[in-house]
Amino acid sequence: MLKKYLEAGKIVSTFGIHGEVNILSYCSSPDVICGLKFLYLHSGDRLTIEHSFVRKNNAVAKFEGIDTVEAAQKYRDKMLYLDRDDIALPENGYFYQDLLGINVIDFDTGIKYGEIADITFTGAHDVYHVKSPSGGVNMIPAVSEFIIETDIEKKIMKIKTIEGLISEV
């Protein structure tokens, strides 16, 4: 079962004098946050976004009912969540958070290499950190030459390897 609410970012500071907040985005881009109408707190409370914009790789947002610096300060260090139903993913698209914990197996042999424990976002492509059953970590570039199939529902990613790609099993 996929999580309905996903971490979108964290409020790191206030911005301006009208209750705006500066949000460190956990999304692929702060534009994702700026494209939403609602964000949610851990408590389940829904925050309505009045307006937002990108500034220095973060999102700045003004929430309905938060109109002063003092009111905004109360939300500092709060985690914000998005509802996965509010995002239209492309066909065969997925959320990065859905990849964490997914089983990585060899396409040809069925050997299980481990689970995705982390993702590094590089300029060229992402890199999956696959923690092996022995505790080591293999770094798998997220490119079509290696990633053959990803099934989020079954929590399986099938990969093809080349010599030297997998050192820990």
List keywords for this structure.
Elongation Factor Tu (Ef-tu), domain 3, 12 strands, 6-stranded antiparallel beta sheet, 2 domains, 6-stranded mixed beta sheet, 169 residues, SH3 type barrels
Layout of SSEs?
Blueprint (H helix, E strand, L loop, with lengths): L4 E11 L4 E6 L4 H5 L3 E3 L5 E10 L2 E6 L5 H5 L5 E5 L12 H4 L3 E4 L5 E10 L4 E6 L5 E5 L5 E5 L4 E4 L10
Parallel strand pairs: 7-12
Antiparallel strand pairs: 1-2, 1-6, 2-5, 3-4, 4-5, 7-8, 8-9, 9-10, 11-12
Protein described:
The strands form 2 sheets. A 6-stranded antiparallel sheet has the order 3-4-5-2-1-6. The protein has a 6-stranded mixed sheet with strand order 10-9-8-7-12-11, with no helix packed on it. The chain has helices at residues 30-34, 69-73, 96-99, and strands at 5-15, 20-25, 38-40, 46-55, 58-63, 79-83, 103-106, 112-121, 126-131, 137-141, 147-151, 156-159. It folds into 2 domains: 5-86, RimM (Elongation Factor Tu (Ef-tu), domain 3, Beta Barrel), CATH 2.40.30; 96-158, SH3 type barrels (Roll). A hairpin with a 5-residue loop joins β9 and β10 (137-141). With 169 residues, the protein is mainly beta. The chain contains 3 helices and 12 strands.
Work out the helicity level: under 10%
Helical stretch count? 3
Low-confidence stretches: none
Ends distance? 27 Å
What string, H for helix and E for strand, traces the elements in order?
Answer: EEHEEEHEHEEEEEE
Q: Round the Cα radius of gyration to an integer and report it.
A: 19 Å
How many domains make up the 3D coordinates? 2
Strand order of the largest sheet: 3-4-5-2-1-6
CATH topology of the largest domain: Elongation Factor Tu (Ef-tu), domain 3
Structural class: mainly beta
Q: What's the CATH superfamily of the largest domain, by name?
A: RimM
The CATH architecture of the largest domain is Beta Barrel
**Number of E-type strands:** 12
Q: Could you name the CATH class of the largest domain?
A: Mainly Beta
User: What about the largest sheet?
Assistant: 6 strands, antiparallel
This entry's quaternary arrangement is single chain
Average predicted local confidence, pLDDT = 93
What percentage of the residues does DSSP assign to strands (E)?
35-45%
Shape: elongated
